[in-house]
UniProtKB/TrEMBL annotation:
One of its GO terms (biological process) is fatty acid elongation. GO terms for molecular function: oxidoreductase activity, acting on the CH-OH group of donors, NAD or NADP as acceptor. SUPFAM superfamilies: NAD(P)-binding Rossmann-fold domains (SSF51735). Keywords: Oxidoreductase. It comes from Microbacterium mitrae. The keyword ATP-binding does not apply. Signal peptide: none annotated. NCBIfam families: PRK12826.1-2. Residues 5-178 form the Ketoreductase domain. InterPro entries: KR_dom (IPR057326), NAD(P)-bd_dom_sf (IPR036291), SDR_fam (IPR002347). Belongs to the short-chain dehydrogenases/reductases (SDR) family. This is Beta-ketoacyl-ACP reductase.
Amino acid sequence: MSASRVVLVTGGNRGIGRAIAERFVRDGYRVAVTARSGEGPMGTLTVRADVTDSAALDAAFTEVEAQLGPVEIVVANAGITRDMLLLRMSEEDFDTVVDTNLGGTFRVVKRASKGMLKAKFGRVILISSVVGLYGGAGQINYSSSKAALVGFARSLTRELGSRGITANVVAPGFIETDMTAELPEDTQKEYKKSIPAGRFASPDEVAGVVTWLASDDAAYISGAVIPVDGGLGMGH
């Protein structure tokens, strides 16, 4: 039964990651989340790890494997922003974001792939962003790291596609999280005008797409980029 599979969601203590973890729990999966601080939702196993630290990640995976079993579905969601216009962006602002968002994905997926190869089954789901392909002023570091996930998933598909492993990208647009709630009301109105759907998404609308990609229904989908953005990024 596919729903009893083991899932690991990075950055599963808040925002979209938390909603994804909750949805997997609701659907009957065995769910672990990594968090630097805080706890994952009820019914999940929280393991401490920073995705920039390979040794900590390895220990986290070992703990999940001991308590729940080998990780069959990995959702690389942990990410940070350090928005700044190019001319003011420091090398550290660039490197830190790329090392977390892209390097973190590399470390997590590399560690997860060992078990997936053994099992001849795996679902790799990378959480990107509409700005990965649409672009965002002041977000050269973030949008570069998120665009890179497309090349990552497609290369992984070519490497591991024949082993029952899929790799896909979900690209959310504006989502109702703490981050968007802090935006001034006028700014929110402006953003909504540019979204054909005329509203922000709920985190659960992203989570539903992720759980579907993890399901048997999506076994023949790999290397795809699925936008969940209300039509904001059409045509990219």
